[in-house]
Each structure stands twice: as structure tokens, then as C-alpha cells.
């Protein structure tokens, strides 16, 4: 039979009966279905992505890690595949160019060219210089909280931390910040986006970035957008479409992923009081705890789709040239063949090469910053309010498989 890319599928799967169907909203939100995925039933499974494409779902740790760095696997889709996927998801035709060739889907030589421009902005040294600003922001947010009433740690804590830091780093003006959350939520969904909400959200994002680039070109500042504009104008390392696409990716990832990292970490510590006590009593080990929280319940359950540039055999299954590959980071991070007792949260775990930030050339450039923001958020909250407790039913508040914590109601004292 032929797949949706017009190539012959030689794998041994019956694509009429996929095991993991991300185009089905029930699968995406069902906790039991998510647990079945995390149990890694076999190394490679048939699946369907949210845009309807058939995919080879890879779940075991060794295979996922290997494919992250395998040169026979590319983030760059075969000609036309990504454009067709974007159209099916409802991206307006005039905006396709900004979402088709981003840093996450470029050919390797273009990826290296663009990646070199942002690595310094997210270096360990740069993160160290940002720590005092993150600490002041977190202190200010804690000062503003009503210690006598109920507090939503997502809206009043995780969201303003992630939004403020990434927007200040990039140079996104205050007037635009509150809009990004609505736009991002309309776009970053694992099922088909709302056809009414998506086009205006994408237009708002693109128009805002174009406006910001114009403002920084006219009056440069001490921010990443200004640096990228300079690189684009003086060194020609970026064309204008690449520049817009890169800023879009950086804002979206820095805002959405970090917000979920903080809120998920808070939730799982609040429902594991023994682990919370270890974090509270040993703040010097919180970075190690954050790594374990990312392994146990990080927000990135799946990597972006990859594509085989030549046939690849994975545990006896041949993925054909052009075959779409879905690496399931959440399953790899919970693989019992790699982690002892993986479904137990253990913030003292030392042997922890988790893959939440990917590996290889596409290792997340913002990993150090995300870790620092989460570490500071945890340490300062639990030091200021050691008696903080969840007020909602954990089963109701807690995340579904591919959905983060929307609200985190707590009492601080």
C-alpha cells in the first residue's frame, strides 16, 4: 500500500489499525491511553499524527536516543510534505512561508547557520547573568500573592515567569505579552486546531514579530531581536522570512514550554510530599530534582516528526526512505530497560540521561534557561511558603497525557 507521501511502505504494519492516533482528541486527552504509550509496548508501533499522516512511532530509550543523532534521519520533510501538513492544519496560505522552513525543520547546513546565531544568547554564561533578574521577578511575584486566600500557581506564577523572561531576553514589548499566550494555545495543539481561532492567532503572531523587527531595525536595543536583525542586515546570515520564523519559534518555545515545565514540576511535587520535602530541605540539589521532574513528567512528550533519508532498520522494523518517524520522548524517559523503577518520581536519581531536551544537533538551546527558571521558581516558593498545599482534587487538576496543568489552585499557608 502507499502512504500519504506517495512512497511504497514496506514496514510490517497494518495502517488501518494504528495503535497511537494523535488525530483522535480522545487519545490525546485520555490518561489511560497516555499510560499505555509510556509503557512502550514494543520499540516501533504504527501511529497517525495529528495532521493524519501515518508515522512510525518509536518508544524505547535506546532507539529514540540513537535516532536523535542518526544522520539517516532528518528534521527536514520531503518536498511539499510540511506545506501540505500546514495547509491541512489550517495555516493561511500567505503565512505558510513563515512556518514551513523554521530552525526546527531546516536542512542541516541551514540549521547550523541559524543555530550559530542563537547559541550564545542561551549559553550557560548568559543564563548565569540572567539569574539575578529571574530571582527578582520571582520574589516580586511571591510578594504580590495573597497568602490568606487561594492562589493559581499557573496564572500567577508559572505564566508570568516564563512570559517575562523570554520577552525581556528577546525584546518583546510589554503591550504584546499577554496576547502571546492566547496565540500560542491556538497553535500548539496536538489535534486539529480550531479553524476559527487559528488564522487570526497566526496573523497576530506574524504581524507582531514583523512590527518588532521593524522597531529594532530603526532603534536597536540590548536584546536578541536586535542582535538577530543586525546579523540579518550586516552578515546576511538570515533572510527576512527566516528572521521572522526564528523569532516566532523562540517566543513560542520560551513562553509555552517553560510555563508547563514550572507548573508540572509544582504539581508533581505537591502530590508527592516526600519528594517535596527533599527539594525543600536540600535546595542545593534542585537542579538534579528538575532533571528528574523533566524525565518523570516533562511537558515535551514527543519530538517533532523526523523523516528517513534512506531505509533504516529499528528493532527488526524497516522504516522506508521518506517514512515519517515519531520519537516519543515521554516513553523513552520511562523505559524500564534504561531507568530503574521509571514510574516512581525520585528527585535523588543521579543516573538520569533523560531526553526531554532532545539530543544531537537539535538539542534544545534553551535547556539551561528553562532549568534555571524552574529551579528558582521551586526553591523560592517552597522556602517562602513551606506549607503550600494543593486545594483541588489531584485527579481533576492533574494533566492528561498531552495536556499540561491548566490551573494549579493552592493555599500558601
Automatic annotation (TrEMBL):
This is Cytochrome P450. SUPFAM superfamilies: Cytochrome P450. It comes from Micromonospora humida. Belongs to the cytochrome P450 family.
Amino acid at each position: 500500500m502507499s502512504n500519504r507521501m506517495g512512497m511504497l511502505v514496506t514496514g510490517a504494519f497494518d495502517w488501518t489499525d494504528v495503535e497511537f492516533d494523535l488525530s483522535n482528541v480522545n487519545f490525546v486527552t485520555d490518561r489511560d491511553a497516555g499510560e499505555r504509550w509510556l509503557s512502550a509496548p514494543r520499540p516501533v508501533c504504527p501511529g497517525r499524527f495529528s495532521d493524519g499522516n501515518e508515522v512510525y512511532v518509536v518508544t524505547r530509550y535506546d532507539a529514540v536516543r540513537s535516532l536523535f543523532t542518526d544522520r539517516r534521519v532528518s528534521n527536514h520533510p520531503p518536498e511539499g510534505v510540511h506545506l501540505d501538513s500546514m495547509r491541512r492544519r489550517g495555516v493561511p496560505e500567505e503565512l505558510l512561508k513563515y512556518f514551513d522552513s523554521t530552525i526546527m525543520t531546516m536542512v542541516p547546513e541551514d540549521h547550523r547557520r541559524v543555530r550559530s546565531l542563537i547559541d550564545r544568547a542561551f549559553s550557560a554564561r548568559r543564563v548565569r547573568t540572567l539569574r539575578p533578574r529571574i530571582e527578582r521577578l520571582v520574589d516580586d511575584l511571591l510578594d504580590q500573592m495573597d497568602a490568606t486566600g487561594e492562589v493559581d500557581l499557573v496564572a500567577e506564577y508559572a505564566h508570568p515567569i516564563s512570559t517575562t523572561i523570554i520577552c525581556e531576553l528577546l525584546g518583546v514589548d510589554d503591550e504584546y505579552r499577554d496576547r502571546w499566550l492566547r496565540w500560542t494555545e491556538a497553535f500548539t495543539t496536538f489535534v486539529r486546531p480550531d479553524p476559527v481561532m487559528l488564522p487570526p492567532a497566526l496573523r497576530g503572531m506574524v504581524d507582531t514579530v514583523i512590527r518588532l523587527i521593524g522597531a529594532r531595525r530603526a532603534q536597536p536595543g540590548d536584546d536578541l531581536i536586535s542582535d538577530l536583525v543586525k546579523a540579518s542586515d550586516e552578515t546576511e546570515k538570515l533572510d527576512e522570512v527566516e528572521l521572522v520564523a526564528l523569532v516566532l519559534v523562540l517566543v513560542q518555545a520560551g513562553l509555552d514550554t517553560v510555563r508547563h515545565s514550572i507548573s508540572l514540576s509544582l504539581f508533581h511535587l505537591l502530590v508527592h510530599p516526600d519528594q517535596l520535602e527533599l527539594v525543600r530541605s536540600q535546595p542545593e540539589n534542585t537542579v538534579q530534582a528538575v532533571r528528574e521532574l523533566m524525565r518523570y513528567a516533562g511537558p515535551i512528550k514527543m519530538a517533532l516528526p523526523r523523516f528517513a533519508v534512506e531505509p533504516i532498520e529499528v528493532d527488526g522494523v524497516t522504516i522506508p526512505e521518506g517514512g515519517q518517524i515519531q520519537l516519543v520522548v515521554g516513553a523513552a524517559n520511562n523505559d524500564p530497560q534504561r531507568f530503574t523503577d521509571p514510574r516512581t518520581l525520585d528527585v535523588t536519581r543521579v543516573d538520569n540521561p533523560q531526553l526531554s531536551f532532545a539530543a544531537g544537533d537539535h538539542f534544545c538551546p534553551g535547556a539551561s534557561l528553562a532549568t534555571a527558571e524552574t529551579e528558582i521558581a521551586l526553591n523560592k516558593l517552597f522556602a517562602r511558603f513551606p506549607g503550600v498545599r494543593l486545594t483541588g482534587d489531584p485527579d481533576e487538576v492533574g494533566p492528561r497525557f498531552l495536556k499540561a496543568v491548566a490551573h494549579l489552585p493552592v493555599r500558601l499557608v
